[in-house]
Write a structure and sequence with these properties.
Layout: H1 2-13, H2 22-29, H3 36-43, H4 46-55, E1 65-66, H5 68-75, H6 79-86, E2 99-101, E3 104-108, H7 109-116
Antiparallel strand pairs: 1-3, 2-3
Amino acid sequence: MDASRNQLVQAVATVPLSHHDTDGLVALVGSPAKSSNETAREKSSPIWQGELWRRWPREEDWPARLDVYEAAAYLRLSPDSIRRALVQARDGRAKLAHQRIGSIYRIRRIDLDAFGKVDAR
């Protein structure tokens, strides 16, 4: 078992990685996973949001459905601002249309555009 794991690690180590692939490699080798607090803090950072704009430089390049952190990066807002817009008012309507599946929110890019986005850089 150890020999096959070593072969796998050596095979993975020879593949050139971008900085986006390193998280998968670390998880494969078996280092401890990040806590949800650390992940949320990282995804809330301007650096992470800037990386998304570098990955998808034009508005039409962004996915059709975004999670809270991606929506915040798209609108250049904080994730807390997006979450506040997702909370239903007393009339049963939220300020921002969305779908909730379990604890995950999905927001259509069209709805974000209607909500009021900032112009692209």
